[in-house]
Amino acid sequence: MYRQLFKGTGYLTKLMIRQNRLKLFLWLIGLVAVTLSVAAAYPDIYPNEEARAAFSLTMANPAMIAMLGVGYDDFATIGSLFAQEMLLFTAIAVAIMNILLVGRSTRADEEDGRVELIRSLPVGRLAYLNGAIIFIVLTNVLLAVLIAAGISLLGIEGMDTEGAFLYGTILGASGLIFAGITALFAQLAETSRGASMLSFAVLIAAYLARAIGDVSSEALSLISPLGWTVRTGVFVENNWWPVYITVAIAFIIGISAYYLNSIRDIESGFIPERKGSIHASGFLQTTIGLAFRLQRTNIISWAIGLFLLGASFGAILGDFETYFADLEIIQAFLSDNTDQSMTEQFIVLLMAIMALISTVPVVMTVLKLKSEENKNLTENYFSRSVSRTSLLGSYITLSIVVSFIMQAAVALGLWSAGVLVMDEPLALGTALGAAFIYLPAMWAMMGLAVFLIGISPKATGLAWLYMIYGFIVIYLGGILEFPDWMNNLSAFHHIPQVPVEDMDYLRTSIMVMISAILLVLGSLSYRRRDIQG
């Protein structure tokens, strides 16, 4: 009887691998290539004991602990330095990969009618979910093996074979637990958007719990999957217990997802969508009003998450200068500009990364139009007196508004928490200025998405690839010593680092012009092409 529930799993697993092969290839190549290239560069980045000692002092700062996780007692080896700087953010990237792949292969396919079509064939009730789980397990195992084998083959002193395989294994395990969480929410939520939002909310909560716990209370950190990840002590202590706990919890969550899937009706969920009003308001009857209503929960959730993320870093700024006041090498690393405080210089580095994170909901907002088109819903607009220009313009306008909201949320979170802990509180204007300066780069990203919607809707994934490239340039460009031409390819690289640097109106104006050109070209192309379903 139970075998019948899983009948057809093998076929469906192959189907999902084929359906996601390009995304899977890009994710695996990107994660493995970045990991190995950074690992290979570390012996040159930290060539002597002085450089490693400076990093050890850096990690004594609560701000760095909150950002990267608890530090090692001894940073004497290249392996410990590499694991400290790379493990947590790589685990987050792996978690994002799993959330997107599982969400696409479960609830999104159900919304699109694929699951109902498949179930009309002689397949088991749980075969589709089982195929998705097997597909994602194989993906994480392959990722773990590639990273572990790659690091081991590099033969870098301080990166032993056991540590290399622990590094790869904990990344795979971290992916599995967030895959399980997404599979569970795919049963609870009624929409793929709801399932993805809940999964990303758990990821953000896990990061915040780990950040606060690592600084103030280890017990809080230990309830977070990311807290377990940073306690592996890779290349030094090589603790395997976080792997066992992570895999065990992932298994339990996965079993729960199977059970819920077996007892629910197709296209239903256990968390019902809130019933709306009987009559639409005047604002809702406009194109921009409907665009906002479709994404309201998503926008609010991102704003709250970014506010809390900014506040988590603002809460540990009080001790920042105490740790670095007498450390000349760190002061030189932050900036040669002595007119600005070290806190302001650190905020510049932080805001660059936060701006990239804020760009995600901005691009998602405008790409919602492409999603509506894929579901043949835009035809409902065009059956009325709505032009393509006004429809696309509504999504562009909403995306621009979202960019202001997200950056304001980051700045307000950072400032409000910093005021409570700093002797000389950060000025609100400084925080807002450091955040809003990145708006032109965010608009350029949005412009690229609109341009792709216009000329080739199937190629909109390139916008996300370009965003990932921007993160690599900001976070790893200095470490890997990228040539100027590689740095210049990122829109975020051209933004002046206010308040450390003077405002450069020419560069920001050029960025705004590039954004406008992309928007115009995208709009013209959208008007002329056929609507695709």
UniProtKB/TrEMBL annotation:
It comes from Oceanobacillus zhaokaii. The keyword RNA-binding does not apply. It comes from the Bacteria. The chain crosses the membrane at residues 86-105, 126-153, 165-186, 198-220, 240-260, 299-318, 346-369, 390-415, 435-455, 462-480, 505-526. This is ABC transporter permease. Keywords: Membrane, Transmembrane, Transmembrane helix. The keyword RNA-binding does not apply.
